[in-house]
Amino acid sequence: MNRLFFRVILFLFLTVLALPSCTVRKKLTATRSSHITKHSARETEALLKKNELQFTWISARFSADAALDSSQVSFNVSLRGRRDSVLWFSMTVIGVEAARAIITKDSVKFMDEIHGQYFAGDFNYINKLLNADLDFDMLQSMLIGNSTDFYEEEEKLHAAVDDGRYLLSTIRKRKLKKVITRNKELKDPAQSIWLDPQTFKIVRLLFNDFNQNRTFEASFDKFDKIDSMLFPYQIHYSIKAEKNVDVKIDYSKVNINSVQSFPFKVPSRYERIIYREKQ
Is 233 domain-assigned? Predict the structure, then answer.
């Protein structure tokens, strides 16, 4: 497993593993409507929070196709988690486990079982590796399709209707369009969330860090029901930064609120991977 492949796998374990699906696939596609009742930013955000996934335990399986610049990889993932506590992943290639990871708020551990290597560290390493600003809460939100608060708490959100969907953004709609279509300069990072007008589920998320020249975009589709809650069955992530990442995932199975275990033991013969910051 070369270092580029390792980065693709590590990125996937940290940023694109999601939890939505159900056994019966109703494939509820996000809808658009020209007749939308306008809400304030506070009302829209409250409706978003009301319709988010609520769970204690989670287990799921999905397939992933990923590209990091010119490197491409496909594999299957088994996921387990306990809310606000731990996320556990097992990756298989052609039916053989190739890697395993376990993530908590304070630690990130990853095993390359093909080449007998492992990493043990924290989010400082991950953020330096990916040129990102990740933490456990942010990853957990992305995994379950809930809102991710890139913005500072004191920032004021703006509400609008855009292309038949609700829009919540840290900048006003008119200014946002200028930024996106005309490459207008903006000093502060900007986050925008588009919501389905009927379900108030997130269908698109866009984050621009203009100073760092980084863009993160996610789209959510094929919503299914589980315990009366909706989840995006297909998710597409795209990151444009120093390294360009594109990931598509499809879910095949999910269960919530069944107690899970998180086995993770590094064999003594494994070599530890040490990250050294570039001088």
Answer: yes
**Is residue 24, in this structure, part of any structural domain at all?**
yes
| Contact predicate 81/56, CB 8 Å | no
Within 8 A by CB and 6+ apart from 171, the residues are: 158, 179, 186, 190, 192
pLDDT tens profile 37-82: 889 988 998 999 999 989 999 999 999 888 877 778 888 999 999 9
255: in domain: yes
Specify whether the CB–CB gap between 187 and 210 falls below 8 A.
yes
* Strand ranges inside the chain, DSSP E: 57-68, 71-82, 86-93, 96-104, 108-112, 117-121, 158-162, 165-169, 190-195, 202-209, 214-226, 229-240, 245-256, 271-272
DSSP states of 118-154: EEEE-HHHHHHHHT----HHHHHHHHHT-----S-TT
> What's the token pair of residue 128?
């330096």
CATH number, domain at 208?
A: 2.50.20.10
Contact indicator for 145, 201 with CB cutoff of 8 Å: yes
In a domain, 274, yes or no: no
Q: How many domains does the chain have?
A: 1
Q: Give pLDDT tens digits for 96-155.
A: 998 899 999 989 898 988 889 898 988 877 777 666 667 888 777 777 788 876 555 445
> What angle do helix axes 3-15 and 123-130 make, rounded to 10 degrees?
120
Domain with 139, as residue range(s), is 3-267
pTM score: 0.78
